[in-house]
Structures are given as structure tokens and as C-alpha cells.
Amino acid sequence: MAQQFSALSERLIHFIQQQHLFFVGTATADSKVNISPKGMDSLRVLNQNRLVWLNVTGSGNETAGHIQQHDRMTIMLCAFSGNPMILRIYGKARVIHTQDKEWGSLFSLFDPLPGARQIFDLDIELVQTSCGMSIPFFEYIGEREQLNNWAEKKGDEGISDYWLQKNVETIDGIPTHIIKNN
């Protein structure tokens, strides 16, 4: 049932573009494994072996800390409508902060989101599809607006203060470099 590929096919790229939700998994050699759900139209396929996703301010910053120590990342998407499928994308990622030279060109690929803090750039090493027949159907209703509203109300200075309080290190104490690089 599972199939493996060295790159994304046009069919899989189309599948990715149709999804409203994806999951990101990261860990260092000795940290807790982190799995984060992502939405907000924040994933872009650049080519068959590269994708980027925009990360907005949240209650933690595990992914940034992990990737700066150990560059492994897995992205998973599931079909919640239509034909069943689970898509896992394995690769090596790097974090791009707002002060990095690539930020402007990559950020322009997305609709601007308040509280944007990083872009993750994933070089794809392995793509795997599996059946997904146990995944239930869900109907997409729309995006939640609470995070955008919260970030807009905070403003840039309030977001920076929040980063200082909540985003400078992971739950395992790994530095995220969010203040230094943003």
C-alpha cells in the first residue's frame, strides 16, 4: 500500500495545494518530539524537491529550536475528503528569520500574516504515500481568525515582547534565536 518516491509528482503537488491542514514533525537527538498542526494557507511547493512554509507566532517555538540543531523535518498531509491518502514528506530543513537575506523573496510567496516569525525551507529527500483509509472525512468550513486578530492587536512591539516571554527557547531549553535574527 505504501509507495516511496524521490520527489513530488505533479499529482502530489496538486494534492498538497488542495489541503487546508498539514502537520510538521521535528526533534533533536535528545529533545521531545514536536508535532505541530499548520494551516492559514502557509505551505508552498517551489519544485519537486523543495517546499517552504510560513510560521507565525505561537505559544511555543519548538520547530525553530530543533531545526537549528538537527535539520530533520517531516511534513504530513491527509486527505479529509475525496480519495483516501496520507502523504509524508521527509527532508532536511533550515530556518529563515526575518533578517535573513532570503526572507523577502520567500515571504512574497505568501499572503502577509501578522506575527510571521520564520520560514522553513525543506529540501525533500523522500516522499511516501500510504492508503489513509482509516482517516475520517471532515468538511472544511474556513480558517480561524483568532490568531490573526490577536497578532494585529499586539502589533510589532507586542509580538516582540511575546517572543521574549514565550519563544526564545524550546520546552527542552534549546535556543531558537528568534530575537537575535528577527
Structural class: alpha+beta
What does the main sheet amount to?
8 strands, antiparallel
Distance between the termini: 44 Å
Taken from the alpha-carbon principal axes, the silhouette is: globular
Low-confidence residue ranges: none
CATH topology: Pnp Oxidase, Chain A
Number of helices: 5
Compute the number of strand runs: 8
Structure description:
It is a single chain. The protein has helices spanning 10-18, 62-69, 103-107, 146-166, 178-181; strands spanning 3-5, 22-26, 34-38, 43-47, 50-56, 72-78, 86-97, 116-130. It is an alpha+beta fold and 182 residues long. Strands 1, 2, 3, 4, 5, 6, 7 and 8 form an eight-stranded antiparallel β-sheet that branches. A hairpin with a 7-residue loop joins strand 6 and strand 7. It is globular and about 50 Å long.
Quickly list its features.
Pnp Oxidase, Chain A, 8 strands, single chain, globular, alpha+beta, 182 residues
Summarize the structure.
It holds the Pfam family PNPOx_N. With 182 residues, this protein is α+β, with helices and mostly antiparallel strands. 26% of the residues lie in helices and 32% in strands.
